[in-house]
């Protein structure tokens, strides 16, 4: 196996075009290689590319480079303030050691690659669920050059062949709120059973543009569009939140990888959605 370390996106794309696999934090590909579940012909180490470490987060716009660590997203004061949902998701991804090595781009790539068949590495997909709920856009490099893709599109099509995530952008209009809740075995380090993320604009007490995504080790990551329609333009009363939680169970029941969702997981969906909506409405 060949290994090369590069310092520019152009050099990385040259190797990726030849079939090399990008190596960032190594928290997924290295264990896969150890277990002989992945045997890349070549690795191109992108950890020295300064352009991939961009970090800018204000009350109306966030720019997060692919090489920004999950730990920094969890701890940075700006993400805590303006993107609490994403910050919470990052803080619950793996152990502290994993978060320090794991990167936004690597976690997102894994989430997009396994969104339809979660399982062993489901906890690595936590950021993908949250970025889908946040309506993020992904700037990537491919054979066609630089392009921008919405998370909704990438979940439908996957990442283009021989591509590299450059950064993620999130736009937050006035009144923007976000929240996240995760249920897992052995807390953060264990497999994600269910995770739920929400973003919305709170205007005069009413929820506008709500986006809700759910994922977990037996669920394909997806938006709960029926719940979104129920909440749009409405005041988030306790009664409406209860109704939304029940709607989430009904909506996700038909999309489970399993034939039936256990009552336990149904209760987690109900509790998780109620929690994130309450957090978002009072943020």
Explain how this protein is built.
This protein is an alpha+beta fold and 283 residues long. It has helices spanning 9-17, 29-34, 70-75, 77-82, 84-91, 96-101, 104-113, 126-133, 151-157, 225-231, 238-253, 263-282; strands at 2-5, 21-23, 42-45, 55-57, 61-65, 137-142, 145-150, 164-171, 176-184, 192-203, 206-216, 219-223, 234-235. The longest helix is centred in the C-terminal third of the chain and has 20 residues, at 263-282.
Secondary-structure topology with pairs:
Layout: E1 2-5, H1 9-17, E2 21-23, H2 29-34, E3 42-45, E4 55-57, E5 61-65, H3 70-75, H4 77-82, H5 84-91, H6 96-101, H7 104-113, H8 126-133, E6 137-142, E7 145-150, H9 151-157, E8 164-171, E9 176-184, E10 192-203, E11 206-216, E12 219-223, H10 225-231, E13 234-235, H11 238-253, H12 263-282
Helical/strand content category? alpha+beta
* CATH secondary-structure class of the largest domain: Alpha Beta
The name of the CATH architecture of the largest domain is: 2-Layer Sandwich
Low-pLDDT sequence parts: 254-259
The ordered string of helix (H) and strand (E) elements is EHEHEEEHHHHHHEEHEEEEEHEHH
**Total DSSP helices:** 12
| Fraction of residues in β-strands | 25-35%
Which strand order does the major sheet show? 4-5-8-6-7
Q: What name does CATH use for the topology of the largest domain?
A: Uridine Diphospho-n-acetylenolpyruvylglucosamine Reductase, domain 3
The gross shape turns out to be: globular
Largest sheet: 5 strands, antiparallel
Give the N-to-C terminal Cα separation: 50 Å
Instruction: Work out the radius of gyration.
Output: 18 Å
Keywords: FAD, Flavoprotein, Oxidoreductase
GO molecular function: FAD binding; oxidoreductase activity
Organism: Roseobacter cerasinus
InterPro entries: CO_DH_flav_C, CO_DH_flav_C_dom_sf, Diverse_Substr_Oxidored, FAD-bd_PCMH, FAD-bd_PCMH-like_sf, FAD-bd_PCMH_sub1, FAD-bd_PCMH_sub2, Mopterin_DH_FAD-bd
């Amino acid at each position: 196996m060949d290994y090369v370390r590069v310092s520019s996106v152009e050099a990385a794309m040259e190797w990726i075009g030849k079939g090399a696999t990008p190596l960032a934090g190594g928290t997924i590909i290295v264990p896969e290689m150890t277990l002989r579940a992945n045997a890349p012909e070549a690795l191109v180490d992108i950890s020295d590319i300064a352009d991939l470490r961009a970090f800018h987060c204000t009350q109306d716009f966030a720019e997060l480079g692919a090489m920004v660590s999950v730990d920094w997203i969890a701890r940075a004061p700006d993400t805590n303030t303006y993107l609490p949902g994403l910050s919470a998701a990052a803080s619950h991804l793996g152990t502290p050691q994993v978060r320090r090595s794991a990167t936004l781009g690597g976690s997102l790539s894994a989430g997009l690659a396994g969104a339809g068949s979660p399982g062993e590495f489901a906890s690595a997909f936590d950021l993908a669920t949250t970025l889908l709920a946040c309506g993020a856009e992904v700037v990537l490099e491919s054979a066609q050059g630089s392009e921008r893709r919405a998370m909704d599109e990438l979940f439908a099509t996957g990442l283009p062949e021989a591509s590299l995530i450059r950064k993620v952008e999130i736009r937050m209009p006035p009144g923007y709120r976000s929240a996240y809740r995760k249920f897992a075995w052995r807390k953060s380090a264990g497999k994600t059973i269910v995770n739920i993320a929400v973003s919305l604009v709170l205007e005069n007490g009413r929820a506008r543009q709500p986006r809700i995504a759910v994922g977990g080790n037996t669920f394909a990551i997806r938006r709960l569009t029926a719940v979104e329609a129920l909440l749009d333009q409405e005041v988030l009363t306790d009664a409406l939140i209860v109704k939304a939680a029940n709607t989430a169970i009904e909506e996700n029941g038909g999309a489970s990888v399993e034939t039936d969702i256990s009552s336990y997981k149904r209760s987690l969906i109900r509790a998780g959605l109620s929690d994130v909506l309450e957090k978002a409405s009072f943020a």
